[in-house]
Amino acid sequence: MRILxxxxxxxxxxxxxxxNIKLLDGKPLLQYTVDVxxxxxxxxxxxxxxxxxxxxxxxxxxxxxxxxxxxxxLAQDNSPTLPVIQHALNFYKKQGIQFDxxxxxxxxSPFKTTRFLDEAIKKFIESDTDALVSVxxxxxxxxxxxxxxxxxxxxxxxxTGENNIIPRRQDLPxxxxxxxxxxxxxxxxxxxxxxxxxxxxxxxxSPLHVDVNxxxxxxxxxxxxxxKSNKK
Length: 232
Known about the structure:
- The chain is globular.
- The relative contact order is 0.18.
- 29% of the residues lie in helices and 21% in strands.
- A hairpin with a 2-residue loop joins strand 2 and strand 3.
- It has a six-stranded mixed sheet with strand order 4-1-5-9-6-10, sandwiched between helices. Strands 2-3 form a two-stranded antiparallel sheet. The protein has a two-stranded antiparallel sheet with strand order 7-8.
- By secondary structure, the chain is an alpha/beta fold.
- It has six helices and ten strands; from the N terminus they run βββαβααβαββββαβα.
- The mean pLDDT is 94.
């Protein structure tokens, strides 16, 4: 299976200025993902999708392929991810280069490992599903069977639609949430169904040690502390 690895990294981060190339323990944040992906046994090609000249320059120093500059309309604060992936796939499609699937790797999750990445891709291939996402277990107190939403009359109802709440924690079904570390999707699902998930979606549970997703300065400090504790 030919898999295109895409690292999206736009400029203009407001919560952590220059986040994608900001130095974390002496390395640009981008480099953590590049180093992991470059060692993968399964990625056929790895590229950067960015609109930012400074990010592109750092990527090129890391020998990360930058085949195009992302259009500005796909690099806004509210730009969804799907069109970014479609843009990359269509770029190669116009050249007659086809990929069976795409693997999206977020810079903001720097502590993933090559082993975890390859385990995810292997499961995706062997499962023959439309897509795979990395997930974490939802803590019991946030389990959808124990959460509520407000109905039209202003009263609380169980978010799952059940009439009776499950009383015991031990009886709660295990639920998961996407953690954004890895997305794998078949190309035809992305281009023809306009979806990252398709009709059949499998998962891989992320290790606890990768529980850092950098969106705020507090997350950045958490990442620095993680590296310090590992050194000790």
